Amino acid sequence: MIQKYIFLGISYLLSWQLTCAQELNLKFEWLHTIKQNSHFMNIDPLQHLYIVDQEDQSIHKYSPKGELLYVYSNNNLGELGYLDAQNPMQILAYWKDYNEVVILDRTLSLRSQFNLEELGFYQVPAVCLSNDRHIWLYDPDNFRLVKTDGNGNILVESGDLSNLLGTDVNVHTLVEKDNEIYMNIPEEGIFVFDNLGNYEQQLHLKNISSFQVHKEHLFFLEENKLKAYHFPSFQTLDIPLETLKKGVLQIKIGVEYLFIRYSDRIETYKIKK
Fold first, then answer.
1. Torsion 125-121-175-55 (CA) sign
2. CB 34 within 8 A of CB 66
3. Residue 180 near residue 193, CB atoms below 8 Å
4. Residue ranges making up the domain that contains 146
5. Distance (Å, whole) CA 229 – CA 238
6. Which residues are bridge partners to 179 per DSSP?
7. How many domains are there within the chain?
8. Do the domain assignments include residue 11?
9. Tens digit of pLDDT for each residue in 151-179?
10. Residues of the chain with pLDDT under 70
């Protein structure tokens, strides 16, 4: 009898999770287009849009309505590798070729700048902000995930990850969201760690160059289609987006807005639930 109730409970839970996954039926209304050749984009929790210009790698901050608010320019470091806007008061920009980290405030004014090599970390492939205003990075020399401050002090570190990841690994992106760190290795998938650097799971979502964790879903592009991995049900869903055209490079989803990046423009849509 107990086994019967356990079975029914599990069946109900699985059915509920699948129903929640299938109910992600979003509709979108076009609002405006920003004409700009871009290298990268990101959004913050307030739905400000950050665009990295393709030509001079300057960072442009826009309001959700498409109003240009602030610009940051640094012509000495070449191509910008990554921009993290999880904290709108502390924007991280990383120039991978120079191992240079720049921290900007909400007006894109310089707050601090430091070189990871000077802190003892060499050829770092990926960095991101932690939720306590420090920095996560992957240390390829010691095969570990590290949280450090701007002075080189190690606050948290994982064990040796070479048995899990291998020694010749292409760590493309790090993202922290809700106290979990997502490590994207396109050839293998996305590896998830807790905020103490402990390995939790591997998501077998391969060949992804850009993704976003939003609530119970991980959104990503695959073959020019928007998809969402639903964590509770382990289901991958297609998100109908009729206006999606060929050549889409990135998609970011906020609470109210959807942003789509093409090489020469960013289109903004209102999310209608």
1. negative
2. yes
3. yes
4. 26-272
5. 9
6. none
7. 1
8. no
9. 889 999 999 999 999 889 999 999 999 99
10. 1-25
| DSSP code string of 100-139 | EEEEE-TTS-EEEEEETGGGT--S---EEE-TTS-EEEEE
Domain of residue 148, CATH code: 2.120.10.30
CB 193 within 8 A of CB 179: no
90 is a domain residue: yes
Whether the CB-CB separation of 221 and 229 falls below 8 Å is answered with no
Q: Give the other-Cβ count within 10 Å of 273's Cβ.
A: 7
Q: What is the CA radius of gyration of the chain?
A: 20
Side chain identity, residue 24: L
Is the residue at 18 inside a domain?
A: no
Which residue type sits at 129? L
Task: Please tell me the pTM assigned to this model.
Answer: 0.89
Percent pLDDT > 90 in the chain is: 79
With respect to residue 8, please indicate whether it lies within any of the assigned structural domains. no
